[in-house]
Design goal:
The protein has about 130 residues and is mainly alpha-helical. It contains six helices and two strands. The chain has a two-stranded antiparallel ribbon.
C-alpha cells in the first residue's frame, strides 16, 4: 500500500500557504487602493529608478497589457510619471513621483502591509475539501 498522501505532502502544503499569503496580501493592498501589480511597480521603481514599460514588465512578472492598464491607473493617482525620453518620442520612462515616494514609505515598506497576516493565514484553515489521509 502506498503511504503517500498528496493533501499532507510538504510541497503541496507550502504551495497552499504561499497562495493564501498572496491572497491576504492582495486583500490588504486592496484596502489601500492598490493591486499586487501596482505594489510590485512601486517596489521596483523605488529600487531601480526609472524604467521603460518593457523593462518594468520583466521585473514585475506581469503581462504588458495588464501592466499598461495598471501604470495608467497609477499615473491618474499621481504615484508615477511617464515621460518621453528619446528624440522620436517612442521611448517612455516610468518613475515614481514625489507623491509616490512617501506612499511607498508609508504603505509598502512593511509598516502597515502584512501586520494582520497571522490572523488571516490560519493554521486551522481547511486547505481543500478532501478528507485528510
Amino acid at each position: 500500500m502506498n503511504s503517500y498522501c498528496f493533501s499532507t505532502a510538504v510541497p503541496y502544503l507550502v504551495t497552499r500557504v504561499g497562495v493564501r499569503m498572496g491572497e491576504c496580501f492582495s486583500q490588504e493592498l486592496g484596502e489601500h487602493g492598490l493591486t499586487l501589480v501596482m505594489y510590485r511597480v512601486l517596489a521596483v521603481l523605488r529600487e531601480q529608478g526609472g524604467l521603460s514599460l518593457g523593462e518594468l514588465g520583466g521585473r514585475v512578472s506581469a503581462e504588458i497589457s495588464t501592466l499598461s492598464r495598471q501604470v495608467t491607473n497609477m499615473q491618474k493617482l499621481g504615484l508615477i510619471l511617464r515621460e518621453r525620453q528619446d528624440a522620436n518620442g517612442r521611448q517612455v520612462c516610468i518613475s515614481l513621483t514625489p507623491r509616490g515616494w512617501p506612499w511607498w514609505s508609508r504603505w509598502c515598506h512593511g509598516r502597515c502591509i502584512g501586520r494582520r497576516w497571522p490572523s488571516r493565514v490560519s493554521a486551522r484553515r481547511k486547505w481543500s475539501s478532501s478528507k485528510p489521509c
